[in-house]
Amino acid sequence: xxxxxxxxxxxxxxxxxxxxxxxxxxxxxxxxxxxxxxxxxxxxxxxxxxxxxxxxxxxxxxxxx
Length: 65
Prior knowledge:
- It is a single chain.
- The protein is mainly alpha-helical and about 60 residues long.
- The protein has one helix spanning about 5-35.
- About 0% of the residues are buried.
């Protein structure tokens, strides 16, 4: 096959995939705006559970240092 034909086929596939993703994104946006999407919540920690000491101050850490 000609090199240009292969490039055109690859570009056409990429454009098709982009169009499919755009449609899916619009559907997700519509679902979110109408409230059809349930957002999961984190399970509540029991009072007996302890957090490891190395992640207790995680929110105050900057840059993971």
